[in-house]
Amino acid sequence: xxxxxxxxxxxxxxxxxxxxxxxxxxxxxxxxxxxxxxxxxxxxxxxxxxxxxxxxxxxxxxxxxxxxxxxxxxxxxxxxxxxxxxxxxxxxxxxxxxxxxxxxxxxxxxxxxxxxxxxxxxxxxxxxxxxxxxxxxxxxxxxxxxxxxxxxxxxxxxxxxxxxxxxxxxxxxxxxxxxxxxxxxxxxxxxxxxxxxxxxxxxxxxxxxxxxxxxxxxxxxxxxxxxxxxxxxxxxxxxxxxxxxxxxxxxxxxxxxxxxxxxxxxxxxxxxxxxxxxxxxxxxxx
Length: 286
Ligand code: AMP
What we know:
Elements: E1 2-4, H1 7-19, E2 24-29, H2 35-47, E3 50-55, H3 75-85, E4 89-91, H4 95-98, H5 119-122, H6 126-141, E5 145-149, H7 153-165, E6 171-175, H8 195-200, H9 203-216, H10 222-233, E7 240-247, E8 263-270, E9 273-280
Parallel strand pairs: 1-4, 2-3, 2-5, 3-4, 5-6
Antiparallel strand pairs: 7-8, 8-9
Helix pairs in contact: 6-7, 9-10
């Protein structure tokens, strides 16, 4: 695996590959890699000649009181995992490479409306930071296809919108949410959970599954579905809900009556750890 830290170096490698008509798959990550990232890598490797992964903990998407400083950065373990998976190319830039004049002075990319809902309400800096960095990374790597997890459903919808609005010549591919055996969605932030919290955390997924079960049994009234799932799985836990909702999968607006394909979104705090998850309604569960 070749590790590129400079924008110009990765760009000249990509230019070389494109001259040979190679297709390029790209997975942007913040590192602390887990099974969710690996499933995106495997999908990309199946569908492209070359797969590029980036590791960049993007300061621009963290609020002042958030976990930027503490975000896990196990770089050596990540490199070992990437090599084991068979990734040929890692892009690992510094913040100065991505924002040479500092983020405050940098051109920013912002998707209106979608950015202010749900996670964007609680974390106002999040999606401006995400879109600003993903736009840059897509411009630098210029992949044929870029891969994003459904685990971060709002992010996926935003990036699809950004790419469409800016006429960016890349195909956005989504990957299924990968879970631990007890249903907890894999996340780099799960490492923050204490042993006791880790046992409670799967309640989020159980609540989502219950919503789907209720929907499949014929209950379609959104407040009723959410109240029942909350009562059964969340009320007696220390999870502090941020939001729990059923939304249209394109606009992310809450729907009063749930339909097949609508998305249940949930976010909450367990101790100081913020966890998010989501599920499509009416799909065949794997
Ligand atoms: P992150 O490193 O958390 O920024 O995530 C990088 C990419 O991996 C994003 O597209 C995420 O949506 C995706 N991802 C993170 N966790 C999972 C998961 N459990 N299953 C599938 N994809 C995931």
